[in-house]
Design brief:
Blueprint lengths: L2 H6 L3 H22 L3 H49 L2
Length: 87
């Protein structure tokens, strides 16, 4: 078994034939949906950008909840500490 065959996993001719068949099927499906290779790349980019933005939006919402709760909890804590300090 040659190094090329070992690397490809099969004989070069069989690998080329398999790649041609799979490329044809993928091209057929992409054409049916009206996709181009650039649409796929833009879709992948948009997915990661949305994921990135969603992550920061989640952090923003989390910090917003903390600040909203702190507006009640911190003054209540201070009032309770002052009330217990006089005893």
């Amino acid at each position: 078994m040659s190094a090329l065959t070992r690397f490809l996993g099969d004989s070069p001719l069989k690998v080329i034939l398999k790649l041609l068949v799979v490329s044809f099927l993928v091209g057929l499906v992409m054409n049916a949906f009206g996709w181009s290779p650039m649409d796929v790349l833009y879709g992948i980019r948009k997915f990661f950008m949305d994921l990135w933005n969603l992550g920061f939006h989640a952090i923003d919402r989390f910090l917003g909840y903390i600040l909203l709760g702190a507006a009640i909890v911190v003054p209540a804590f201070i009032l309770l500490r002052l009330a217990n300090y006089r005893k």
